[in-house]
């Protein structure tokens, strides 16, 4: 088992919300941490129950990058075990690169502890599989351009041309525009689509429909943040059994 060293900052993926969906390593770090800086807008506060009562838990929502770094640096210099707790997994829309660069300037390294991303939590809520044999074998993870632009080659329209499974982050507030772009790009109006609000939280809401009616349903449900838009025929009725478990299909581990 790893021993944790207070000379680094530990970036921990908190999972999508359910406090049981953090990794054991993340849990162990939280239970030992002396300073925890968590993204309050998205982190389930129940995760902080894993911390010692003496731990200093700070919501980063009101802090800017400089203030977050200063808190990390001063705490590490005091010899404290510092955890930066972020939603889902760190590798998607996690801004860990800029935090890592700023820490490096102060001579402090970081380690990342993987988490369960919300696109996986959302699929679990639906009991769905993004990759369905002969229907969709790829998943596009993206967002609509907002205040943060996306490269032109990564527009929703261009991705829609593939008509495969898509998980769209950070975009539900613009559901009308998302639907327009998906239709312009190539999906037909009957394509199934689901919006999952707060996947794996007790207050999770799932709205299902097609590209024709989803925008109205999402607005009627009052969903305008903390949601994923999942689109593609993987949500539809067509599926084919996989070859892997087919009794007529031999492979390395099993002969017909
Ligand atoms: N690193 C995170 C994503 C951070 S960006 C991850 O791996 O999930 C924040 C966006 O993630 C939100 O706007 C929303 O689109 C999505 N999100 C995060 N938690 C979610 C949840 N529990 N249910 C649905 N969407 C969620």
TrEMBL record:
A GO BP annotation: methylation
Pathway this chain belongs to: Cofactor biosynthesis; adenosylcobalamin biosynthesis
Gene3D superfamilies given in the database record: Cobalt-precorrin-4 Transmethylase, Domain 1, Methyltransferase, Cobalt-precorrin-4 Transmethylase, Domain 2
Protein name as annotated: Cobalt-precorrin 4 C11-methyltransferase
Chain ranges of the Tetrapyrrole methylase domain: 8-214
Gene Ontology molecular function, alphabetical: precorrin-4 C11-methyltransferase activity
InterPro entries the record matches: 4pyrrol_Mease, 4pyrrol_Methylase_sf, 4pyrrole_Mease_sub1, 4pyrrole_Mease_sub2, Cbl_synth_CobM/CibF, Siro_Cobalamin_biosynth, Uropor_MeTrfase_CS
Species name: Vibrio xiamenensis
